[in-house]
Amino acid sequence: MAAKKSVLEFISSIKAKKRRELLEFEAKKLISIWGIHTTHAELAHDVQEAVKLAREIKYPVVLKVASPDIIHKSDVRGVKVGLSSELDVKHAFEEIMANVRANKPNANVLGVTVQEYVPPAREVVVGMVHDKTFGPTVMFGLGGVWVDVMKDVSFRLAPLTRDDALEMISEVKGYPLLTGTRGAPPADIEALADIIQRVGQLAAEVPEIVEMDLNPVFVFDKGKGAVAVDARIVLREG
Prior knowledge:
- By secondary structure, this protein is of the alpha+beta class.
- It folds into two domains: about 40-115, ATP-grasp fold, A domain (Dna Ligase, domain 1, 2-Layer Sandwich); about 120-235, ATP-grasp fold, B domain (D-amino Acid Aminotransferase, Chain A, domain 1), CATH 3.30.470.
- The protein has helices at about 1-15, 25-35, 45-55, 85-105, 145-150, 160-170, 175-180, 190-205, and strands at about 40-45, 60-65, 80-85, 110-115, 120-130, 135-140, 155, 210-220, 225-230, 230-235.
- The strands form two sheets. Strands 5, 6, 7, 8, 9 and 10 form a six-stranded antiparallel β-sheet that branches. Strands 1-4-2-3 form a four-stranded antiparallel β-sheet, with helices on both faces.
- A hairpin with a 6-residue loop joins strand 8 and strand 9 (about 225-230).
């Protein structure tokens, strides 16, 4: 399978850098190889490169700090959303760098990622962990309070069938939010099931990946798809 070969080559390039955790733009490249829809993201080492990439990706864009030492970018005020001009990008780049210096002065900062902006939609979480007893296990839940407070999630062992993925979605208590409530249109559950199934396939076929977190995944109205807006991947040691 060409995708598997490309993913393994990509993983080898990360391991050659003596790193286990992929940066966000790297994780997005990996899942896109596997056919999981995600936002376009590229690394800019300086402000001039950020402006150039923003022009190529098309406005509006999102800027996020890129550092192996910073997992939660918003905690260091390292995210700027909805930038619509070259001046916005320049100011955002400078602000992100100043914020990181103030909040995480010893972090190894590679630059910023310039990313495609997508409008907000219903947020869900798709994750995977390689359990020592059961092997690769896929998790699904609605975003926000449903995961953090309600612990409203479902699990399956990888790999998954299409029916498995659809069952995972229907099992969570917040499922009515996806089917449409109070006149709201239903979400694109088929596109979401495709992402869940592909995560399961990736986990089963590439055991070098021991942890994956797509959070959030934006699910648009029925027929309009779903997209992973953020991605985190951790590789096996050695």
